[in-house]
């Protein structure tokens, strides 16, 4: 029983990070129909920028409170990533807006390579130790189930950020403009919405979320690396599709479900298949679930609520 | 015209000087050495070359007579830049120069492709530092190594876990690479053979950072020892996550994570419960280690890096085999090399049927006082 509960905790933590990254994919897809494959790289840039900031802070103000340092690092990483998101849209994707869908997709893949290589030039090929400023000392809220403060922080921060985003999209004028652009950007433009600005803003918000996700990811595992964005990016994209790409609630649900399926799958796949499959099939297990969901619900778990896209 | 004349005169002088040391009766025998002499591990390549050089200089000083002739050994040193392609190019150069044997290369990745060229040319080669089992699994007659391979390393880890650590229940994780998986398989075999029980065999990959799910599963099996076959980039975060999950089992890993980098990545998750292994003995523990250290320092005014003693023994093994066979012809001394058995710097030098060192030593290190320290 403790093992199952522990796996659920593991899944929730990983799932929260997936969900946060998945929001970036789903927002951009909702508005442009573009899968921004470079989004995972924005996560990486966020983590490495935060790392750089922390290293500088430790040099100039070693006595500063750890949480304050982390907050400053996040506040530096977010604008850097937002600027990156803005530039990506402005320089690469905007020019291709009328082009066949394949062109922006290939551009996104190229952008991903470009950002990885740039990060490799700036930060080198080595793995970096990311300072774990939120405690990783395990607590046992239920005997036998270990939870660390950093894991709690990840789940809480993700939940808050996602709630904020939902409020922004559903309750504000800006959100209404975003939803209108998502539905039909020509008509929205005719109604007086500056669609170019809205699209740029979508990229900027998504990149900001990615920066937060990157810092949380690096804080949890204690490492940062120029290629660290690839796997979470791929998983978050999967989560977005699982939940119904283009749907905000779907991205969150998809992220959490994927995290849980992975953790529980890795834990029990061997027992369930009587030893035929083992944990090296952890990733396959997640994709099998995705396949099954898409067979019965081709638009994903929450995909039918098209009007809610943002 | 004038310049050419001077150049010829200088060249003539040079040749005169070079041949000056060798009396007319001496026969010059060339041994090849290959290692990376440029690039990030060039210090290790030079270390190997110096080891081999020290061996032939000492034999030359003692005087070796083979086939009734006094022999003067020379080293032809080549640079493979730790690059497999450059490795095969210089291997061909050594073959063309008709060396009678090769000490090298340093890396498994360069040694394996180059070994084919030496094999085809019928020239024996002894690597002082390539540990990948594939090198000797090719079944080339003239391929040897003086360092323990990964099969031997895995065997030693299994025995250490069940013996010194007294483990009954062992969990094994590997990263599904040729190295990690190969090492983990050997650990499993040897742990089982020495009375251990494998309670979990889990897998990850060489890009993963999250091991919580598999570690949670392992925790439920309550192992005494967890072995990880893989590199430091995964080993570091894995140790941290072990701590986060409150797992107190001992952790042991192979040479891929037995590094200074591992110390950084695992950070404060390291404790006396963390162990790792390296092929070979620490220099001070080798039978001829202390003496070798002094001779080396005296000759090169440098400290031994890692593999110089193994390169020394590799060159010595070839010369000893030539003495036994009373011939420097590769085809003739090869059978003597296969049967060679003498006390070298690193220990007893004798090869098994595949060409691996028979008593390959493995050293276990334990984390203590901020670094890896050999377990006595």
Strand order of the biggest β-sheet of chain A: 1-4
CATH topology of chain A: ABC transporter involved in vitamin B12 uptake, BtuC
Q: Helical amount among residues of chain B, as a percent range?
A: 40-55%
User: Which geometry of chain B do the CA atoms define?
Assistant: elongated
CATH class of chain A: Mainly Alpha
Radius of gyration of chain A: 20 Å
Q: Kindly report the name of the CATH homologous superfamily of the largest domain in chain B.
A: Response regulator
Tell me what you see in this structure:
The complex is a heterodimer of chains A (about 300) and B (about 375). With about 300 residues, chain A is mainly alpha-helical. Chain A has one domain (about 1-310): ABC transporter involved in vitamin B12 uptake, BtuC (Orthogonal Bundle). Chain A has eleven helices and four strands. Chain A has helices spanning about 1-30, 40-60, 65-95, 100-125, 150-170, 175-185, 185-190, 195-220, 230-245, 250-270, 280-295; strands at about 130, 140, 145, 225. In chain A, the strands form two sheets. In chain A, strands 1-4 form a two-stranded antiparallel sheet. In chain A, a hairpin with a 2-residue loop joins strand 2 and strand 3. The N and C termini of chain A lie far apart (about 40 Å). In chain A, about 50% of the residues are buried. Chain B is of the alpha/beta class. Chain B folds into two domains: about 25-150 and about 285-350, 3-Layer(aba) Sandwich (Rossmann fold); about 150-280, Rossmann fold. Chain B is built from 13 helices and 15 strands. Chain B has helices at about 1-20, 40-60, 85-95, 110-120, 135, 150-160, 180-195, 210-220, 230-245, 260-265, 290-300, 310-325, 330-340, and strands at about 25-35, 65, 70-80, 100-105, 125, 145, 170-175, 195-205, 225-230, 250-255, 275-280, 340-345, 350, 360-370, 370-375. In chain B, helix 10 (about 260-265) links the parallel strand 10 (about 250-255) and strand 11 (about 275-280). Chains A and B meet through helix 1 and helix 10 of A and strand 8, helix 8, helix 9 and helix 10 of B. Chain B: This is Branched-chain amino acid ABC transporter substrate-binding protein.
């Amino acid at each position: 029983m403790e093992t199952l509960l522990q796996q659920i905790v593991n899944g929730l933590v990983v799932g929260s990070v997936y969900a946060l990254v998945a929001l970036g994919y789903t927002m951009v897809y909702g508005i442009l129909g573009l899968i921004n494959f470079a989004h995972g790289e924005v996560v990486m840039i966020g983590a490495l920028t935060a790392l750089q900031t922390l290293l500088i802070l430790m040099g100039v103000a070693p006595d500063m409170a750890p949480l304050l340092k982390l907050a400053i690092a996040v506040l530096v990483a977010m604008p850097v990533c937002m600027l990156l998101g803005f530039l990506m849209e402005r320089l690469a994707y905007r020019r291709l807006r009328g082009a066949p869908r394949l062109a922006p997709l290939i551009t996104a893949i190229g952008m991903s390579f470009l950002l990885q290589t740039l990060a490799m030039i700036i930060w080198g090929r080595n793995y970096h130790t990311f300072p774990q400023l939120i405690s990783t000392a395990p607590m046992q809220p239920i005997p036998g189930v270990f939870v660390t403060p950093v894991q709690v922080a990840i789940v809480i921060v993700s939940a808050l950020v996602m709630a904020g985003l939902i409020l922004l999209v559903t309750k504000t004028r800006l959100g209404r403009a975003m939803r209108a652009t998502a539905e039909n950007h020509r008509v929205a433009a005719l109604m007086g919405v500056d669609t170019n600005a809205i699209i740029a803003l979508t990229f900027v918000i998504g990149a900001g979320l990615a920066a937060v996700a990157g810092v949380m990811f690096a804080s949890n595992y204690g490492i940062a690396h120029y290629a660290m964005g690839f796997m979470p990016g791929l998983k978050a994209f999967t989560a977005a599709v699982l939940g119904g790409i283009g749907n905000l609630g779907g991205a969150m649900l998809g992220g959490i479900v994927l995290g849980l399926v992975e953790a529980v799958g890795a834990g029990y796949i061997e027992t369930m298949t009587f030893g035929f499959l083992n944990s090296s099939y952890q990733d396959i297990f997640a994709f099998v679930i995705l396949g099954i969901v898409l067979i019965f619900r081709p638009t994903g778990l929450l995909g039918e609520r098209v009007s809610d896209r943002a | 015209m004038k310049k050419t004349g001077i150049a010829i005169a200088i060249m003539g002088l040079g040749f005169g000087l070079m041949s000056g040391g060798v009396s007319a009766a001496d026969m010059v025998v060339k041994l090849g050495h290959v290692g990376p002499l440029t690039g990030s591990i060039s210090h290790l390549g030079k270390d190997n070359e110096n080891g081999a050089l020290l061996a032939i200089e000492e034999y030359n000083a003692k005087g070796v007579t083979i086939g009734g002739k006094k022999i003067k050994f020379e080293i032809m040193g080549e640079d493979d830049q730790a690059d497999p392609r450059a490795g095969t190019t210089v291997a061909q150069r050594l073959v063309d120069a008709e060396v009678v044997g090769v000490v090298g290369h340093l890396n498994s990745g360069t040694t394996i492709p180059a070994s084919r060229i030496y094999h085809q040319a019928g020239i024996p080669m002894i690597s002082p530092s390539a540990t990948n089992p594939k090198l000797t699994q090719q079944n080339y007659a003239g391929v040897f190594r003086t360092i323990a391979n990964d099969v031997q390393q895995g065997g030693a880890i299994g025995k250490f876990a069940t013996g010194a650590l007294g483990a009954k229940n062992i969990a094994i994780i590997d990263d599904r690479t040729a190295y990690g998986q190969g090492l983990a398989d050997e650990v499993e075999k040897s742990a089982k053979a020495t009375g251990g029980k494998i309670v979990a065999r889990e897998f990850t990959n060489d890009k993963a950072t999250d091991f919580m799910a598999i570690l949670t599963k392992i925790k439920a099996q309550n192992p005494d020892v967890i072995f990880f076959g893989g590199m430091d980039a995964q080993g570091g975060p894995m140790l941290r996550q072990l701590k986060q999950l409150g797992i107190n089992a001992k952790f042991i890993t192979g040479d891929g994570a037995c590094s200074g980098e591992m110390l950084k990545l695992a950070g404060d998750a390291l404790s006396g419960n963390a162990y790792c292994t390296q092929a070979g003995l620490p220099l001070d523990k080798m039978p001829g280690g202390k003496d070798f250290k002094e001779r080396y320092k005296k000759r090169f005014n440098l400290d031994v890096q890692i593999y110089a003693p193994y390169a020394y023994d590799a060159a010595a093994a070839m010369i000893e085999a030539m003495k036994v066979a009373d011939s420097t012809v590769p085809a003739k001394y090869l059978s003597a090399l296969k049967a060679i058995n003498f006390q070298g710097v690193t220990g007893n030098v004798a090869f098994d049927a595949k060409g691996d060192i028979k008593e390959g030593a493995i050293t276990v290190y334990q984390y203590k006082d901020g670094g890896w320290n050999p377990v006595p």
